[in-house]
Protein 1
Amino acid sequence: MHETKRRDLLGGLALGAGGLIAARAAAAEGAADAHARGHDVGPGVPGPAVVPHKAEDPIAFKYSMDATEPKLTSGGWAREATVHHFPISQGIAGVHMYLNPGASRELHWHAIAAEWAYVLDGQCQVTVIDPNGTTEILNFGPGDVWFFPRGHGHSIQTLGTEPCHFILSFDNGNFSEHGTFSITDWLSLVDPAVLAQNLGVPADSFASFPKGEVYIQQGKVVPLDSPAAQEVNSRVSPNTHRYRLMQQQPTRAFPGGTINLVTVDEFPISTTMAGAVMKLQPGALRELHWHPNANEWQYYARGNARVTLFGSGGRMATADFGPGDVAYLPQGYGHSIQNIGTEETEIVLTFDSGHYQEISLSEWLATSPTQLLANNFGVEEEVFAKFPKQQVFIAKG
Ligand code: MN
Ligand code: MN
């Protein structure tokens, strides 16, 4: 805008209603100038339909997954959070799965989602086939992560005499673990004569196969020191489906907490999801931030935290989370997490992008001109002298 018009505009604003008319005229003139310079400044260009939010519109971003009815089987159980129960979670669905000693989650695949997992406790063996026909057999323990690209066939077998349980996260909120493509379901629906032809065996070979989906079945305990438990066929990066997240040094460490982050950079097969384990000490705050490129899904494994979520237009939500609770933070929504308990809080986080991006409040303010900030907030520049000069990430309590 020309300097003279800028002065006119400011003068107009100071003059009340008459001034506003002048200001609008000046703004229209400025727009006309911009048009003349070839800039597309609208108005008149219809944008996408936007449903306006009201400040009082609630944002329901908490779901107590572990308080829901599980899908129970002979060998364990699974609880899930999908958009059907938790409507905000459009981008990511989640599951808590628990396998008894000797149980296995049967051979299956997922048509519409990749699977990212974090082992909370116990030992298991995973078998996964990729489209090249290569099968990887891998053992997992607490703190390990697996990633199965969409459609890779897989199964999970508990090893040893302890149960094994893990958090699964899927890059599609519509995905239901209770609607997977399971081998027993499929084979029970195919004419045994077709199976016999396919595999070159007599049709009665399938006579005692299950008549429907097994899902998780109880079997014999596989001892940790048995040949079956030890015969693995692990591959190396970039083809392996395993990343030992908690065997790494924290990606970032602060007096108030740590984060172990894994993205496609460290774990090349995980092209569509990233994840992390964050630990917050009592009172510590994961600072205000947002993620430009991904939705965030959280499972609270230990401790208690208060999460704030900013949804624009005066909308703000706050909720308290404890073990077994899930949070969903839509892409671009501002949020913060504070440990409000007396113990360490541990959170499993996932994102529906292989790349991790964030912008945090402290870094934004630290890198903006103080003149700009003073003008923005209507205060003196000195106010910002004591603000942090770099990103805080986790502020101690
Ligand atoms: Mn699966
Ligand atoms: Mn976040």
Protein 2
Amino acid sequence: MMGPCHPEIYQFDVLDSTNTKALELGERGAIHGSCVVAENQTGGRGRLGKQWFSSEGMGLYCSYIVRPDLEPQDYPKITVLAGLAVAQSLDEVAGVNCKLKWPNDIIVNDCKLAGILTESSGLSLPADKRFAVIGVGINCNQQLSDFPEELRSSVTSLYLAAAKKFDPITLVVVIRTRILELIHQLCQSGLHNIIERWQEKDYLCGKTMRCVVTTGEIVVGVAQGVNKGGELLVIDAKGKSHRVLTSDIRLAGSSDFT
Ligand code: BTN
């Protein structure tokens, strides 16, 4: 299993979480660009401790191990980059128009198509031991009835959006190529270009939302888009600008706004 001299795709029928397996393989030295794919997950993990609903054989569940030449404090930039890489890949392969809901949910037709959970390991260790895992969950070939009832009003799939079925492994490879290209770009020339592309896909900009900001306050305001560092800004009713913490964002008009 270990010791590939080129990035491998490790395929499994079932795992609890591809992120957990990728963290394990990363600790054991899996190289930059290696990835773990499972047909099904029994304990798929989402952001903020949530579960990620995984339906056997119909979704794409994969985790990329990346070893960018970055200082530990720059690792959060990988989260921003990962959203763009997935959105661009899905636009290209499926002919959809993905939007990015900060920090990195992928939205099509106002519904969630994909989610990303980025985790890192060994950040306090020497550079050759550090790595990040980019976990990508894509609703691929599901019909609406394949999702639990409580999710049906807020999710979509590539099949629903593009009216055809997709081969998950083809997507895994396209996304990997895009992630590696953007990491190369980030390490060579910084986040600037990536942020510009990200801003073109910003789903939240101009929308009224409730969120927790960096001071810990709960603020209702209008999203102003992301700044050069990839932080989301929100302006409150008094005109004061705040930086949003990575946390649950509730949109005005949605059932969970209050
Ligand atoms: C989110 O939107 O909250 C992030 C969801 C990330 C889910 C993917 S599925 C593949 C990988 N393995 C996991 O356990 N989680 C990520």
Protein 3
Amino acid sequence: MLMKGFLVSKMIGTKIVHFNEIDSTNTYLKKHYKEYNFGTVVSSNHQTKGYGRKGRIWYDDQTNSLMFSIYIYQELNDTLGLLTQLVAASMVKTLQKYNVNARIKWPNDIIVSNKKICGILVENIIENNKANVIIGIGLNVNNKSFDSSIQNIATSMYLETGNLYNKKELLSTFISQFNTYYCNHVNNQLSYLDICREHSYLIGKSVTLETGEVAEVLNIDNIGRLVVKINNKVKTFIGSEVTLHHIYKK
Ligand code: BTN
């Protein structure tokens, strides 16, 4: 029985399109999203031109990473920034189910043992008042080593636990967690933000911004912005507005 006033949300993952090799699942969906319905997931074993935020290369070693993109859309409004947090919380919960304890380096990195295990890249294509949202996720699963340029800053589920994992099963665990939080989200229940706060890698730490200013990270607000204190003034940033350089551990 449905509760009165409770909105049943659309779901992701009803259709999964899988490639053995592709340039990038994000690039593919950016070109082809009009051919697909809400919630389509595109995954690939290998990407020849995988990329992350700020045009950085996303490395994979042919088989060991879980790489996929999700196509959703929504009205253009200020809840768009929440989607990265919803994905981050879904990934933390997914990893928890496999006994991997992760934290979120706002806005889009998932960290284990001070190293990155997963990156999230949300790209929006705005048309009229509609945001077509392509959410790209790269999770290091069974990787035993990394490119020398990232070996000191990257980790995988295998390196953390010594176990090998089934990527298909991981994807379906993630999809079901995402659908739970997404349904909450469309009903204005933002419990996933509490997961982001509880598992934050930044709250309580000091970071330096691109400007050289030192900021104390206070919180993540209800539209997913980072709340910081700089020179005794409280400021908020959205993900694209700020690059956090050094993190001083307290
Ligand atoms: C980041 O760390 O800056 C985000 C990395 C996002 C990588 C994923 S892998 C699947 C999707 N396709 C891409 O080319 N990028 C994203």
Protein 4
Amino acid sequence: MNDGYDLHVHTCRSDGRLTPEAVVRRAADNGVRHLAITDHDTFSGLDAARASASGLVDLVPGIELSVTWARGTLHVVGLWVDPDNDALRVAVHDNDRERHTRAERIAGRLARSGLDGTLEGARAQTAPGAVPGRVHFARHLVERGAVGDVREAFKRFLRAGRPGAVASRWISLEAGVAAIRAAGGVAVLAHPLRYGLTATRLREATRAFREAGGEAVEVVCGGDGPGQRGSASALARRYGLAGSVGSDFHDPDQTWRDIGRLPPLPADITPVWSLRAEGEG
Ligand code: AMP
Ligand code: MN
Ligand code: MN
Ligand code: MN
């Protein structure tokens, strides 16, 4: 099982459903030995996760940064980062501020489509002190009966081109990767096959990521099949990137991407954890 690594997991501090404590427990129960908590644009779950991880799993400090590339959004996972690093704190702060104003813009757009009160509704789906993202709007739309499930909420209201879609002003790809590196971390291009990019654009994005200082790409992602793994492996080989493995776990009801339930990296792909020198943190 990939030497016990799962390097992409969410908690309720962003859009996951479980508390950091419950995520750590579930990881340990599932046989994970090295767990990265990678909430969207926040470190607010890290202390609680670290406290409960002691003796159970090796907790890798991580984050999933939203970044802008060519007017679209990419996700960059930072692993083994120092959350107190100033450059990374600035990057996280800028994205967090964008998340707050973006939630208001989403609610404004939905109101114009006749859906009032969605900001309050999304907040009710969000952990105290956390900021509502699109998943919280989706859960609210399900709860009020506007849609049948979260997938439908994205499809009808939240995806690009839909009534609740907004242009997001994240930090740039270059700034995100630089901040992760400044914080001593390894930058990983997350779930490359989930951006809806053409093969050509995906290669351009991967090249830009590597030129910015990115060192790995997620080759094994929760819920992906052999076809997607093959395409992601080809990107790793083509651009000389290491491979990461991550379930992108959010929700215990979504068992197809449970923590630690991941096929192995192809044998010729360098595991991202081998980029960490022996004995480091
Ligand atoms: P945000 O960062 O607020 O724009 O939300 C992005 C998150 O929404 C992703 O990390 C996923 O958790 C979730 N997501 C994106 N697309 C979909 C979809 N089509 N169906 C369900 N969840 C999605
Ligand atoms: Mn998410
Ligand atoms: Mn993502
Ligand atoms: Mn994720």
